[in-house]
Amino acid sequence: MPTTQLEHKVIVITGGAGYFGSSAVKRFLGLGANVAALDVSEDALASLDGEGFEGQLLKIVCNVTNADGVTAAVNQIVEKFGPPDYLWNNAGYQGAICPTLEYSITDFSRVMNINVTGMFIVLQACAKLMPSGSSIVNTASVAGIKCTPAMVAYSASKAAVIAMTSCTAKDLAPKGIRVNAVSPALIGPGMMWDRQNELHAACDSPYFANDAEKVAKNKVNGVPMKRLGSVEEVVDMVEFLFSDKASYVTGTNMVVDGGMSSGLR
Ligand SMILES: NC(=O)c1ccc[n+]([C@@H]2O[C@H](COP(=O)([O-])OP(=O)(O)OC[C@H]3O[C@@H](n4cnc5c(N)ncnc54)[C@H](O)[C@@H]3O)[C@@H](O)[C@H]2O)c1
């Protein structure tokens, strides 16, 4: 294997067993990194494929909203691999797809707790140990910029992630730690894209057609380049933001889709 910049580096990925996370785990293992995949889902972690890279992969069941659990996970990572060089703070919960007047307060709090407080807990626990030259990427969403209808909690939480990214980038710059956000927009094709369009079609919002195929078509038509972004492109962006090629980049929010999003995510 040719030497890569990530070889022997320690990468922490939350939501590491999910759609984006599992793809990144595979990519970074292949580039020679030691990867800690944290996820609340024990089943999903169990099926996370690290074949051929067993010594480089540490799977930890961890709920990012539990500060003691996150501290214990970080201690485990330090013991096995050393302090984190890179963090993809990526765990997230979409919440209900439901217009504002019917949105449950309980679900609103849950979305904010996982997407905002949980992200901060992980960021703080890792940043305390990260060396100068390290890099953090927080997963926001284009929903946090364009504010997707029927997704009030999610949009508010991802706007908070973008603000958290700018603020922590300033606070951590003197320590030599960069912090950026990645905002996936229309990502597909595949199961997640189809499910999202079905949920939007069923949510009874006047902004979405009530047929999933039409919803999908309308969304793509709103993108100047008329294409979806891919999971690989999201991971490409994270890899770039980790790399020395991005040593001048901090406090930014990189949107990943086929151009500019329509806002009807
Ligand atoms: N898929 C998209 O099109 C899209 C678009 C924009 C933003 N995002 C964001 O990207 C990130 C990853 O999404 P995904 O598409 O891979 O979804 P996913 O549901 O496949 O992955 C999310 C992972 O986070 C884990 N998770 C949820 N709550 C957790 C908690 N409290 N502690 C630890 N882990 C927890 C889940 O178990 C899951 O494995 C999320 O932050 C999501 O909001 C996704």
TrEMBL record:
PROSITE patterns (UniProt xref): ADH_SHORT (PS00061)
Gene Ontology MF annotations: oxidoreductase activity
UniProt keyword Acetylation present: no
Keywords: Oxidoreductase
Keyword Transferase found: no
InterPro entries: NAD(P)-bd_dom_sf, Sc_DH/Rdtase_CS, SDR_fam
Name the record gives this protein: Uncharacterized protein
Organism: Triparma laevis f. longispina
